[in-house]
């Protein structure tokens, strides 16, 4: 049995001081059930994506979902964690359960509450997703700065392309009412270090880094055999996961082999090439990561992604619009919610339900969610099944 997406929920992303972790879970999950037209009693199992790593004290929170509807009580619920790909890990757990025949209706929620911690604490928590045995001294800005440095050594300075990526994603976020930062940025501002845009880890500046955000997103997935029961549905033309080595030192940063393999496997599963895609939501935790994704997607040859970005290939009116939601850079990056959010945004696009973000005629949308420094990558391709 193949899975289809029949409902979704999505809170705003941002600094949501008035909402607890549980509040966020409840808001997204309730909206997803309502969107799908199902009740708790109809759900067979629940998957909750929550990275945490000490950001909040709630480390055993999968059953928080159950209290939104008495019908969910006693239903199996599990918490998933896979660094910044935590949300997609939860989605794929539900996919596997539906394909096995064990589950017909699954509720998936991704959530993170980050802004209650200061920047140093968040940096430490995220750093726990690295290889602590030998690389504990590197923060994630440090790690992706090394990616940018390696790219420069191999192909030339990526700074201008990275600035264009930041500008594009902030422009896209203006159309997304759920985005954390709905504000445009000037190219000149993103290019030059300043007191308001300081260097975080050379060459990465503040404008090269994704946001520290609170937020949650949710999906209802069901077996395809239930299609007649729902008015709308998006299907998975591909779903592929690849894990690479954990140590940064064991990988060639410029090759970006984990994401490249996951994307290629998804293309092969779907029987398509990059030219068939309408749009893509990629993991732009740092602008250099999006630049490397451009090349991993085969939009450009290695070293030629810079020109593609600067020429507007990934802009809203370009050959392959990228991160129409604003991406992690401007939509926000509540870690456990990110992968689920990507699937929500992609499903809305292919079903023509993306509001101001809608790309006319969107028919195939890809999501590429990455955990760690290209360690765990999930690549999905969504298509409309019923509109």
Protein described:
With 387 residues, this protein is an alpha/beta fold. The chain has two domains: 3-117 and 213-234, Thiolase/Chalcone synthase (Peroxisomal Thiolase, Chain A, domain 1), CATH 3.40.47.10; 139-210 and 235-386, Thiolase/Chalcone synthase (Peroxisomal Thiolase, Chain A, domain 1, 3-Layer(aba) Sandwich), CATH 3.40.47. It is 34% helix and 19% strand. The strands form two sheets. The chain has a nine-stranded mixed β-sheet. A hairpin with a 4-residue loop joins strand 10 (365-371) and strand 11 (376-386). The radius of gyration is 19 Å and the shape is globular.
Topology of this structure?
Elements: E1 3-10, H1 21-36, E2 45-49, E3 77-80, H2 86-100, E4 105-112, H3 119-127, H4 132-135, H5 140-155, H6 159-173, H7 187-191, E5 199-201, E6 204-205, E7 215-223, E8 233-243, H8 257-270, E9 279-282, H9 287-296, H10 305-310, H11 327-330, H12 335-350, E10 365-371, E11 376-386
Parallel strand pairs: 2-3, 2-4, 9-10
Antiparallel strand pairs: 1-7, 1-8, 4-7, 5-6, 8-11, 10-11
What is this structure, in a nutshell?
The chain has 2 domains: 3-117 and 213-234, Peroxisomal Thiolase, Chain A, domain 1 (3-Layer(aba) Sandwich); 139-210 and 235-386, Thiolase/Chalcone synthase (Peroxisomal Thiolase, Chain A, domain 1), CATH 3.40.47. It has helices at 21-36, 86-100, 119-127, 132-135, 140-155, 159-173, 187-191, 257-270, 287-296, 305-310, 327-330, 335-350, and strands at residues 3-10, 45-49, 77-80, 105-112, 199-201, 204-205, 215-223, 233-243, 279-282, 365-371, 376-386. It is built from 12 helices and 11 strands.
């Amino acid at each position: 049995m193949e899975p289809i997406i029949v409902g979704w929920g999505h809170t705003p992303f941002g600094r949501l001081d008035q909402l607890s972790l549980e509040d966020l879970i409840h808001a997204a999950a309730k909206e997803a059930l309502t969107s799908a037209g199902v009740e708790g009693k109809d759900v067979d199992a629940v998957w909750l994506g929550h990275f945490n790593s000490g950001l909040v004290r709630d480390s055993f929170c999968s059953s928080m979902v159950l209290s939104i509807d008495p019908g969910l009580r006693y239903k199996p619920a599990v918490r998933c964690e896979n660094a910044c790909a935590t949300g997609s890990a939860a989605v794929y757990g539900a996919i596997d359960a539906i394909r096995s025949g064990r589950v017909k209706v699954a509720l998936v929620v991704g959530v993170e509450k980050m802004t209650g911690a200061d920047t140093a604490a968040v940096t430490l928590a995220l750093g726990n997703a690295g290889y602590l045995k030998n690389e504990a001294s590197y923060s994630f800005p440090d790690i992706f700065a090394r990616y940018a440095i390696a790219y420069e050594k191999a192909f030339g300075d990526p700074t201008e392309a990275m600035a264009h990526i930041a500008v594009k994603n902030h422009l896209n976020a203006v159309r997304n009412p759920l985005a954390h930062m709905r504000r445009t940025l000037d190219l000149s501002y993103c290019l030059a270090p300043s007191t308001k845009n300081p260097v975080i880890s050379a060459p990465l500046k503040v404008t090269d880094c994704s946001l520290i955000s609170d937020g949650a997103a949710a999906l209802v997935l069901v077996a395809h055999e239930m299609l007649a029961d729902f008015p709308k549905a998006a299907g998975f033309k591909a779903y592929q996961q690849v894990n690479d080595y954990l140590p940064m030192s064991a990988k060639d940063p410029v090759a970006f082999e984990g994401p490249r393999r996951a994307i290629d496997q998804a293309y092969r599963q779907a029987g398509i090439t990059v030219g068939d895609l309408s749009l893509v939501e990629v993991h732009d935790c740092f602008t250099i990561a999006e630049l490397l994704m451009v090349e991993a997607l085969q939009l450009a040859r290695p070293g030629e992604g810079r020109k593609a970005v600067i020429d507007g290939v990934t802009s809203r009116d370009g050959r392959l619009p990228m991160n129409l939601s604003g991406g992690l850079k401007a939509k926000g990056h509540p870690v456990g919610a990110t992968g689920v959010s990507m699937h929500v945004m992609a499903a809305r696009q292919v079903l023509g339900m993306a509001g101001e973000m809608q790309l006319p005629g969107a028919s195939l949308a890809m999501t590429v969610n990455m955990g760690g420094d290209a360690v765990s990558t999930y690549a999905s391709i969504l298509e409309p099944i019923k509109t």
